[in-house]
Amino acid sequence: MEQHQNQYALVTGATSGIGYELAKQAAEHGYNLVIVARSQDALQSCAKDFLKYGINVIPLAKDLFNPGAALELYNEVKGKGIEINLLINDAGQGQYGLFIETDINRQLEIIQLNIASLTALTYYFLKDMVARNEGRILQVASIASNLPGPLQAVYHATKAYVLSFTEALINELKDTEVIMTALQPGVTDTDFFDKAGAQNSKLVEDPSKMSDPAQVAKDGFEALMAGKDKVVSGFKNKMMVSMSHVTPDSVNAERIRKMSEEQDHDENS
């Protein structure tokens, strides 16, 4: 296995779910870590998990819902004299429900986190990577990138941005040694749905049908190391994305609406 001693990976959303597993993948491959999340306590706990790989772990608490946080994070990393060789933009959240019945301020925060902070972090660290002609970036998109998402309209739209943004930058980087990859998971067994207020959605009705975040992270990390443009994690998710390309958007939207509706708890149904 290729090792990356003395190189650093920065992972946002690193304290749980896919982000935690991606940080673990980086640690297993010998990268030192800069782990980023909002909770300092959670970061300190995760740092202990990663130290067993014999690497250096720097926890940095940053709230990427705030517009200035991405630049603050970049400046703190630079101030420590750390060069980021691998950037993993995992932090992202959603909000469940009919758009007009959700909190617009919460939706705007999600746009800030999923789009603006991701874009800013990509900009700052990518400029350094291009200047060195070395580096890798993994953008965590979603199969939602390819599908309109009734009941999660803003989340799906933000992930469509992430995929389109990544695909465009891959072209801009084609004459450099900088690699960028989009990871597209499907419904994964993380706390995403709790944070989104979607605990009663049919999407989480059967946990056995949800993807394992460790496997999703492995798929994404391997694709990044192999220099692939994008990877859809999971056979069923690959089929869903393939079908979406040949199905009218209105049909895709209706299918996602039915999959996302609240579970029927009527005992007579």
Q: What's a concise summary of this model?
A:
The chain has 269 residues and is of the alpha/beta class. 46% of the residues lie in helices and 14% in strands.
Summarize the structure in words:
- The chain is an alpha/beta fold.
- It has one domain: Rossmann fold.
- Helices cover 46% and strands 14% of the residues.
- The protein contains nine helices and seven strands.
- The protein has a seven-stranded parallel β-sheet with strand order 3-2-1-4-5-6-7, with helices on both faces.
- Strand 4 (84-89), helix 4 (104-132) and strand 5 (135-140) form a beta-alpha-beta unit.
- The longest helix is centred in the middle third of the chain and has 29 residues, at 104-132.
- It is globular.
Give the key terms.
269 residues, Rossmann fold, 7-stranded parallel sheet, 14% strand
Task: Write the SSE topology.
Layout: E1 8-12, H1 17-28, E2 32-37, H2 40-51, E3 57-61, H3 69-79, E4 84-89, H4 104-132, E5 135-140, H5 153-172, E6 178-184, H6 192-195, H7 213-225, E7 230-232, H8 235-244, H9 249-260
Parallel strand pairs: 1-2, 1-4, 2-3, 4-5, 5-6, 6-7
